[in-house]
Amino acid sequence: MHLDEYRQYDATGLAGLIRNREVSREEVLEAAITAIETYNPKLNAVVRTRFERARQESRKVTDDTLFGGVPTLSKDLLMGLAGEPLSFGSASLAHWCPKEDATLIQRSRSAGLVMVGQTATPELGLMGITEPKAFPHPHNPWREGYSPGGSSGGAAVAVASGMVPMALGGDGGGSIRIPASYCGLFGFKPSRGRVPLAPAHGEVWQGAVIEHALTRSVRDSAALLEHINGMAPSGPYPVPHERGYVAALSSPRKPLRIAVSMGESLSRGLGTRLSPDIIASMNKAATALTDIGHQVEWCEPPVDGEALANSYLTLYLGQLAADLVWISQQTGVAVRRLAIEPSTRAIGRLGAVLSARDYELAKRYWHTAAEQMSRFHQRYDAVVMPVAADTAPKIGELYPSATRERLMSLLALPGASSLALKAGLLQRLAVDALRRTPFTQLANLTGQPAMSVPLHIANNGLPVGVQVLGRMGEDQRLFQLAAALEQHDVWQRPLPRQAFCA
Hints:
It comes from Vreelandella sulfidaeris. This is Amidase. InterPro entries: Amidase, Amidase_CS, Amidase_dom, AS_sf. Belongs to the amidase family. GO terms for molecular function: catalytic activity. The protein is an alpha/beta fold and 502 residues long. It has a domain of 266 residues: Amidase signature (AS) domain (Amidase signature (AS) enzymes, Alpha-Beta Complex), CATH 3.90.1300.10. 41% of the residues lie in helices and 12% in strands. The protein is built from 20 helices and eleven strands. The strands form two sheets. The protein has an eight-stranded mixed sheet, sandwiched between helices. Strands 1-3-2 form a three-stranded mixed sheet, with helices on both faces. Helix 5 links the parallel strand 2 and strand 3. The longest helix has 27 residues. The relative contact order is 0.14.
């Protein structure tokens, strides 16, 4: 199978070719390996390959599986492969290996997917960019020197460049939707608890983190979620396996009442300014939804953006402090000696002095936001908002400068972390971290399904995604809406120009 031909198909299309004996699964796998070997030296999407294991596993795939041997990539974060390295994007875990496969890996394999490697992520998945110091930085395949976003940045690069038709990703604050927007892909974040994190975890970040995939088509995303959804035996949420995602794509569509928002309520107090291209993408989305037959109203979600940001960052600090203790336990290295980035260490120190009271107060706001959105959705079936305030940033543009890292190192001084929190450093962190992307954390805190749909190409040639949130648990309705948009002229289908990828 020629590389140019391979790159034109989504996973469902490749599976159809294999099923109809037009190509063999071995040919498809070798095309994926060729694509990775051709493009990855320049794009840095894949941090670790497992080609020989993939060849062995491909031979065991049966014809009756959903994807029949289609190659994919897992993320170097949470998605454990038994006995194989999983570094979480960090030098501190460079030699750590989980003892068993993650449930997501097990279910993906049972769907006929073949794991050919692992994709880049920022250290511990902490940033909306993918620039770990332990690995080369992925480049957005649409333009050299630009970021693919994060934390599923490597996955987005791999799919957008055509290395694989879809790649597994995780989303704790926009980590599927932001890279999907920056790289012109479809990125779906399921409802809370829909995809288990077992056996290593019951929940991550108090349930804010959910895993799924970045894809080039809606049907791939729906088909995969239909197979992998449903609680694990040890799961904290009673979420039974649900069918109907694929059927929803072609089922009769009734008009919906949809709110469209520029996200002002979420960005208030953060100094966020939407670029003209983001504004254009939102207007385009409103027009397309009206064309399809939905009732569109401009309306802001009733959420306090500053309170949401502070709540999110408070939990973020506490979770990171706990994660660093876990890494210390796994590696036998004291927390103070871990090989972690200065910004990670500084945030961990802040989390270590965070009070249990403040942590619990922050968590309680999640329910406040969920209740507010629940009432909002009594009026609206879905809400459309930006994913980010602008197109993809340049690599290095959003990473802490050397000066900022030196200032962060001062938090090691006795009492400095407590004083920093009292002096309002949490609010400063919220502004710095979320100014460009204050719109995606809401769905993680409330648990709602959300997606980024590729509806616009900016004047600078970079793609722009538009975010859609649905009612809690109504993942199928979002897929139905995405399928309708995919059939509209507004949907952007081009791959990045191959010249840069090569």
